[in-house]
Queue: 2 jobs
Job 1
Amino acid sequence: MTESATELKRFAADVDAWMAENVPTQPDFLLPLSFLEVGTEQQLDFLRQWQRTVFEAGFLAMHWPTEYGGQGADPAYQAVVDQALARYNAPILFNTIGLNWVGPLLLDIGSHEQRLRYIRPILSAEEIWCQGFSEPDYGSDLGSVQTRAVRDGDDYVVNGSKIWTTLGNFADHMILLARTTPNLERKYDGLSFFLAPMGIAGVDAQPIRKVTGEYGFNQVFFTDARVPAGTMMEGEGDGWRVAMKTLEYERGVSAGQASGHWIVSTQIDDLIADLKGVQRDGEPLFQDPLVRDDTVKLIMEARAMALGRKRMTVPALNTDYPMGLALSSKYRGTEYARRMKLFGAAMQGGHSALYVDDPGAIRGGFWQRAYFSNFGATIGGGTTQVQANIIAEHVLGLPK
Amino acid sequence: MASVLGTTALSLSDEQAMLMEVARSFVRDQVPIERVREHLESASGFDPAVWAEMVAMGWSGVALPEAVGGAEMGFGAVVPIIEALGFGVVGTPLMSTILAGQLLVDAGAGAVDDRLTAIASGSVATVAFLDGGDWGAPQRSVVVQANGSLSGCKHFVGDALEAAFFVVVCEYEGEPALALVDRSALAAEALTPNALIDLTKRSASIDFSGVKPEQLLTGATVAEGIERYRLYGALLCATEAVGTSHRCLTALVDYMTTRKQFGKLIGSYQALKHPTVDIYCGVEDARSFVYHAATLIDRAADPSDIEIACRMAKASATELIGYAGDRSVQFHGGFGFTWDCDSTLFIRRAQWTRQVFGDAGHHRKHLARLLLDPVINSG
Ligand SMILES: Cc1cc2nc3c(=O)[nH]c(=O)nc-3n(C[C@H](O)[C@H](O)[C@H](O)COP(=O)(O)OP(=O)(O)OC[C@H]3O[C@@H](n4cnc5c(N)ncnc54)[C@H](O)[C@@H]3O)c2cc1C
């Protein structure tokens, strides 16, 4: 073993010991399955405290520069931590929009001052971030958003509404995509990108309830809200380019995220463990030939994606479609997760009808809730159908 | 408890990368699809000059020991070659010959070096495996009789008409055995060629009754070698299918970016676009499985990991090429339904590939045993 491999192994042992000591037991209230469903102050306080604990232990954004709160370590170290967090079923690191989209974006194209100002509070969860891209009338067609930002002295005066804004009701800042110049021939050129404060007058977030019964996203209304001009990233009219960069981090096309632990880890192994005891036609579920076949298909799909991630590191096996594996990872991963969770929810016989509040539900109705919750992943961040268009056009070269 | 997701070992050696380069440019420059088409209805199904060049490049012996004139690069070295030939839809006896050679290496333990030397220098060999249509059967209905001669028939023997000798999977004193039979020991009437759905492939039924094998291999290594033959065969057919599916994808994309209807390129219609994306994703998956299996084989990994990887490769590639070939005909419209459209080659290859060495369901059934039984029977 090389020296660095030995070191990594030692580090993994330290992390294990720390997790055993520090991962909190499940509180007596339901925690969200992902950062998309933080709905109550109680959940927020709990998750904020946990993220702070992880950060202070030095286990968050380990591969980010030390001057901004990271450890300047190899990304392999954060991967070890993320695996341990999943293994210990630790609460999620919920400030995801800051940790995984805004942070990497600032490290990529932000100024030194912006990094100093924003990154550390993202890591410590002192400041929560949300994303104001989608609007009631424009979602997939993001380039058409209409929320207006009009320059007035040192501010931009913002009017309009954003929707599906995850964490919007708790957030301190929003990455805001707004129209600074209307009616341009190229609609994209009229957009600008702000690191907008949420605590200013004229910003109002109204929570919206989801299929799962939970909250987590909002409609945000802007009424003559004065956003300081200094919070603009890049220049006026550069908003689309910055937003597209953000989406690369959101979709996992580009690397550099602070932590992969933003969702309760759900693997096919968990499904098998949870449903082992289910009977079907008088036999254990996994003796049924059709159930076995479907389960193997899911296992194969999961392994194919894991192998795909591995293959990205072998250049000679990526010459035909150099960006293909990266650009298809959201499309593949989120749809696989939806079908796998649906399978877990559907294969419980009569228990499939129960939901989280029923004391008789298998694993507290985890699979039913996880299946519903997963639509956040297949719709949010660019829907599955839009991802398919992107792969078709950017990987295969098919026309728009 | 170990995860059912298992290992994700996957690498490519410099030698494999080099072979990939060489094989890809050989197919591109020397075997364009028009050249393949010239031989679709000939007896052998391939161009002897193409075969001679492949032999000259050492491909029949790439995995064989140096002692018999091979390159001893490991079985994984075969994979990039077969993938490239699959891309070219090139049918030659290479796969049959390599698999026969590997079976002899695995089962024969030095007793068959002259045959291996012949293979390394381009002699065509093939395994006479199937007793009938069932790939999952034990394949032991050909029996070595008390007088030392064989009784019974083998079916779908690949490249039988071209083969200089046969490795016959049979039974001797109640145990699996391999009988080596030279072509010269067979009467012409013993071979009955099949009319195959894949026009680049050839096979025949062979009646071995009364034939005295020149050599008989028996013992534990034979049984193991035969099991490995099933897996290696599945892997190579999967590998070929990855190449052919990739070719099918590129042909489809070409057509979708040139053919217009309603004033627009048909590639802009999502009813075509999105299934094409799924074909693309299928190519990536099956390709990962194939190189994963090759990696495990070359590392002499745990046999059950190798078995899982080979079966996943075949199950995945079989589904892929079936879908790709089918959609390719449909998405070319009327032209797609013609003999002249290369979709013909793809959809015909797909039907052959599906069954050979077991279809997807066959492999998933074994995968369920390998992956699920240990977990559900524990604790
Ligand atoms: C849980 C959750 C959290 C979210 N969080 C945020 C957030 O924090 N910030 C934020 O800005 N947004 C957020 N979103 C919004 C998300 O990005 C949008 O919902 C998404 O982009 C789709 O837009 P839409 O809802 O307007 O649907 P539409 O765009 O109206 O789509 C409706 C349907 O049409 C399909 N469709 C649309 N265009 C095409 C096309 N060109 N080709 C094929 N099919 C098409 C879609 O796939 C979909 O099935 C969130 C969404 C969810 C579900």
Job 2
Amino acid sequence: MAGAEGRSSVREQPTIVCRCMDKTQEDLIKSLQMAIRMFGPEALEFENYRRLATATTGFCQGRGCLSLVQRVFASEMKKMGIEFGMDEIQFRVRSPLQPVPLGLFARRSLEEV
Amino acid sequence: MGESMQDRRIWEHPVLSWDRGTPLSISYDGRSVTAYPNETVAAALYAAGVLAFTRSSYLHRPRGPFCMIGKCSQCMMRVDGVPHVRTCILPVEDGMVIESEDPHDSEYPTPARELRVERQELSYDLAIIGAGPAGLSAALAAAPSGMRIAVLDQSPYPGGQLVKQTHKFFGTKESFAGTRGVDIARNLISMLKEHPNVELHTTTQVIGYYPPEGVLIAARAEGVDKYKLMYIRAGRYLVATGAMERTLAFPGNDLPGVMGAGAAQTLMNVFGIKPADDVLIIGAGNVGVIVAYQARQAGINVRAVIDILPKTAAYLVHAAKIRRLRIPIFLEHTIKGAYGDGAVESAVIYQVDRSFRPIEGTEKELKVDGVWMAVGLSPSVELLNKMGARIKFVPELGGYVPYRTKYMETSVRGVYVAGDASGIEEASTAMMEGRIAGLSAAISAGRGTDAMAEERRKAIEWLDLFRESPDYRRIKEGVSKVLIQEAA
Ligand SMILES: Cc1cc2nc3c(=O)[nH]c(=O)nc-3n(C[C@H](O)[C@H](O)[C@H](O)COP(=O)(O)OP(=O)(O)OC[C@H]3O[C@@H](n4cnc5c(N)ncnc54)[C@H](O)[C@@H]3O)c2cc1C
């Protein structure tokens, strides 16, 4: 039933950290390197990183992956001698908190405009 | 293509039965699928052997449901022309047309039908988000105050995680020992029905909160194309949104067939559907071993329950039950990867050393079509975050949780929290916290009675005592990190 294309071999499976945005462990490490170049290791905050990596920003709004993404962030930062304390949340999630049709908020259909 | 669909429904079970009613028919990618009135679309598809519901956005990987409670968004399909519908919380209707979506399609989504949206402005004294044990208990406790109360839940059936717990709880009498979770939920709901001042809204998802004047926005789905958009202003809010099951990072962790143990439980116990024939369960805590036992009852072969720790965190009674069934428990083991073409076909586990590093050469391959994750839950605090509540990372409580007073009020005045959303614990404490929060909402609004104040004092005392026991020390420690000290 699964289509043939895009199928990785049975034995070679990616490790997906964020399902919604389709980010693998390697993707996350790559965007961390980019984030560090942009912000500098000292100034880099999790929120900057999260936005750049786009992980945690999909349909589920990080419900499924936030803790995994943080773990990758913390362990990679640690390798550079920077302790990342996952203390207080520094970001606000956005509405809608659940995926709902855009039409809910539209006043008229395109034809009427 | 012409192949007939399977039927993964369980028709014989040692302790459960399902009153399925008259079958109806839905169409899935042009094929006809049998469904039953109490099922959700995702359940009916799973019963027919559909494992891959959608394709991932970039890597184009097949994906299937992970949570089955409307949180993971991996079950989205096009329903009657409406794109991106979460099928796990959508009740089936005869003749529904379900299509799998492909993000690489060139065709853009055009709803076949116009949405019908009715806007409502509503006001309540107390709005409770989540109708699990915490939310329901809160409503029950606050109801005698006469306040106008709304309980909102996105699921078609109230009760939260309790509805899938078919085992008898133990503990003290207050915590409903000896009663099955599903019956506790039923009791709470029927007691709630006796209060005309309480409205219970199911299939109603809370999608946002807008300060400063404070409007909670909820969408009540009545089918896929008809919605009530509710603008709710309430004197008090109580967030009891529960938690979401966690996963681990390993190759193949997104293959259809890899799902939360609670999701598997929903399929088996709520809908009577076998999610797999042979399964590997990751995590030998209470959830892992209970689900292993229930899987066996459902006729599923549990190939192994593994845990990275050297000893199981499960209550002895539960662990002994599965040992008696000769279900192998491998401690100090973890998963190396899940493999398969389009869905899980096998998994490899290996042993770890004292610092949790895998030991080469200890790999074991298991032929399984299910890998169930029982590795803990993360509190669902998105709404609280949106409402501006201060939130802190507390490992003892399962992740990010809000600061709260002993009355379960968060750092935002008039916003309360209870249950797993305030820290992962269990149904009994969720109910007690719900009671405390519900009573406090009433008391702080000047609607409490002396009896309610006394009930609250007792509930707080019970909770404190409960957490004194050695099993709950960690929780107590966690709570102390987010406790707001406040003059009563
Ligand atoms: C396999 C398993 C076995 C367990 N066994 C036991 C046991 O033996 N004894 C015990 O005491 N406990 C047990 N527990 C734990 C217990 O089930 C939970 O602690 C308890 O259900 C938490 O209650 P709650 O009301 O906080 O959350 P939940 O029960 O998760 O309810 C939350 C509700 O909020 C709704 N919701 C969430 N977000 C929104 C939104 N944005 N809009 C609208 N609605 C929303 C959800 O649909 C859900 O119905 C077990 C748990 C599992 C997974």
